[in-house]
Amino acid sequence: MRAVAVYRHGGPEVLTPTEWAAPAPGPGDVLVDVAAIGVNYHETYERSGLYPRALPYVPGRELAGVVAALGADVTGLAVGDLVATADTPAPGAYAEQAVLPADRVVRVPGGVSAEQAAAVLLQGLTVHALTQDSHPVRAGETALVHAAAGGVGLILTQVLRSLGVRVIGTVSTAEKEEAARQAGADEVVRYTEVDFATEVGRLTGGDGVDVVYDAVGGTTFRGSIASLRPRGTFVLYGQSSGKVPPIDLSTGTRGSIKLTRPFLPDFIATPDELRTRSAAVFAWMLRDNLHVRIGRRYALADAGTAQSDLQQRRTVGKLLLMP
């Protein structure tokens, strides 16, 4: 089958279109004909060696597709079902087919396409954990959302607004500002033009925000902490600009704060929790009209271009690979 493999760590150029052995389902597995693949920062961390993996490997953890075959002892699924996954113990989504543990896939409900499922599941599960667990938000709060026009940011902004939270988003361009506003952001700060922490202080009358959701990391960490009100919560869920620097928490804060570093697999550790949270994500789409913006579609062989575009912030919304 056609796949994209990583034979050595490095930049996007190491993503190599190749022929890979077609997989076969074992007991408890399903074989999926892949229809759409989500492109995520996690794959760039593994490709670079920041998150070590044994070489060679087929990257990717998020996909949607049709069940082509069932392994022994699989119940609750049938050949022809549209399913999706965003968390597999043995990733390998950048391919025409993938074998997945049956208890780590979810059936996609009617009314949601394969492209929509691949575009929403990982980010949607992340947003559910961020808003329900990392900081259970309440109506009337104010949140600072970094990368508000990214895959997570656009979903997070919509969900926060639906829960009655005021959203201040940060973006880098006019196009991304427009996308963040369309998602419902009350205020949008272009961090390339002004100091976002100073602007947050102005927008909150000096009070600061109740919660910061930060997927950027290195370049935003100190400003994020400075943007918090006393007893506010800093949620660091990514590090697209690099690792956060050491910080002395005895200085640089305006009182008591909380810091948390959520890791999605901890919030979908059991099949029941995966199904429950996935159902909530799909309900946001079908019941609450959550809009999932697909920024660009790429051929499977162009995975390197997709990852480069993601890292260089050239796109708005979710990027998909199409086998």
UniProtKB/TrEMBL annotation:
* Gene Ontology terms for molecular function: mRNA 3'-UTR AU-rich region binding; NADPH binding; quinone reductase (NADPH) activity; zinc ion binding
Keyword Zinc listed = no
Q: Name any GO cellular component annotation.
A: cytosol
So which domain of life are we looking at? Bacteria
User: Which InterPro entries does this chain map to?
Assistant: ADH-like_C, ADH-like_N, ER, GroES-like_sf, NAD(P)-bd_dom_sf, QOR-like, Quin_OxRdtase/zeta-crystal_CS
Residue ranges annotated as coiled coil are: none
Supply the alphabetized keyword list: NADP, Oxidoreductase
Q: Which CDD domains match?
A: QOR2
Outline the extent of the Enoyl reductase (ER) domain: 10-321
Q: Which residues form the signal peptide?
A: none
This chain belongs to the protein called Zinc-binding dehydrogenase
Q: Which organism is it from?
A: Streptomyces typhae
